[in-house]
Specification:
mainly alpha
Amino acid sequence: MSYWELYIREHERHGQWMLTDIALPLADMYPQQAWELVLGYDQERLIGDRVAASVISLIQKFSSGEAKINL
């Protein structure tokens, strides 16, 4: 569980870094394409949020015994 908590925190930190250090400076450099850069960032962030929510849900199901791994 602690691995996934760390993973999610780092994912959030990386997303913030991508926005402030990459997407926004590129939007300043290419104002005509700024909307595409911000849209791409937002889409990536939403996908990451969905993945994180799925991982948390699965961890909770396995932790509670609601789900089991069938090998």
